[in-house]
Amino acid sequence: MAILVTGGAGYIGSHTCVELLNAGMDIVVIDNYYNSKPEALNRVKQITGKDFKFYECDIRDRTGLDKVFDENKIDAVIHFAGLKAVGESCKIPLAYYENNVSGTVTLCQAMADHGCKRMVFSSSATVYGNNKVPYNEEMSTGEVTNPYGRTKYIIEEILKDLYASDNEWSIALLRYFNPIGAHETGLIGEDPNGIPNNLLPYIAQVAVGKLEHLNVFGDDYETPDGTGVRDYIHVSDLAVGHVKAINYITGRTGIDAINLGTGNGFSVLQLVHAFEKACGHKIPYVVAPRRAGDLAYSYANPDKALRLLGFKTERDIDKMCEDTWRWQSNNPNGYDN
Ligand code: NAD
Ligand code: UD1
Fold this sequence. Notes:
Layout: E1 2-6, H1 11-22, E2 26-31, H2 38-48, E3 53-56, H3 62-71, E4 74-79, H4 86-91, H5 93-113, E5 118-124, H6 147-165, E6 170-176, E7 178-180, H7 199-207, E8 214-217, E9 229-230, E10 232-234, H8 235-249, E11 254-260, E12 266-267, H9 268-279, E13 285-288, E14 297-298, H10 303-309, H11 317-330
Parallel strand pairs: 1-2, 1-4, 2-3, 4-5, 5-6, 6-11, 7-10, 8-13, 9-14
Antiparallel strand pairs: 9-12
Helix pairs in contact: 1-2, 1-8, 3-5, 5-6, 7-9, 7-11, 9-11
Bound molecules: nicotinamide-adenine-dinucleotide (NAD) and uridine-diphosphate-N-acetylglucosamine (UD1).
């Protein structure tokens, strides 16, 4: 029995593979390497001392998926594969709907036809839109402001319809807050293509001298220091959450949306100062205009994850910055070293 990990060579996928292997689970990984490199999986093997099967396969390729299910006994799927850049999704929305939405439909069809009806899906806190913080799972969703976020909302709805049509399914919709950090060995981490869109990868590239300064998008929000507040979660904590979600969906049926966050918010400037402590020098920044679509606050109510999964984060903001710095300084060019 194995867990199929789609998008397993990516940032969150690679860290989750480490935690699944460390928990003694067998895994099979598929990825089309659209946004990742084979070296990430070599390093997963290096960290864990364990081997696993890999297929270079696109989730939209039904024939390729059938081969994976025919050749392996798959017990459950953790579905990370997808496109995730908000700005890009506004420019090429159809590519996002095709890859994320159609890809998930094809994957679910292959799963159903092979009698595999357990899935952990990578959703996002973005589905909460403009609700009041802290976000809880009972709140309305769907008021998203960009095509990327809408794919997450649509996929959640598709999976709810799927469960309603066939109660043998067991599905966890994991709503991630802001994953940052890297594995503590410094061997795997986030390796964005081009100039990073997200805050911590940007700060890390300023710290290592690849970028000149950080642009702080707005200092006039109604927050304590005027900058945006987010719920940053260490990627290794997030990965452990997936192991717990696999245990939860096994031996039961149903569909649950579950937040994976810490419940604590940190502002842009707090994160900058935490990173300065980790890297030992100042991070130059300038205040820039607000970024369209950004909210003042986003943070989780993490109670349901504790109640259903027994999940609680363990790594604090200093650890998130230390581990990112170790990864970034050891691998200034990511996996291209
Ligand atoms: P990532 O880009 O590092 O990983 C995604 C992986 O999926 C990549 O390795 C990519 O090559 C692969 N992939 C993409 N399309 C594919 C396809 N059609 N077939 C096969 N493989 C494909 O991204 P990540 O940060 O690890 O995110 C993983 C998942 O979590 C994504 O679904 C993302 O939307 C979701 N998510 C991420 C964040 C975040 O901040 N990183 C937050 C919320 C949700
Ligand atoms: C972004 C995505 C969101 C996704 C989430 C997952 C956007 C608009 N939203 O959210 O869909 O679910 O990542 O992690 O991209 N900031 C700066 N300077 C920068 C970059 C960011 O000041 O160069 C600020 C932002 O204004 C925000 C905070 O840092 O206040 C965090 O930004 P980011 O890392 O991009 O994450 P989110 O916007 O929360």
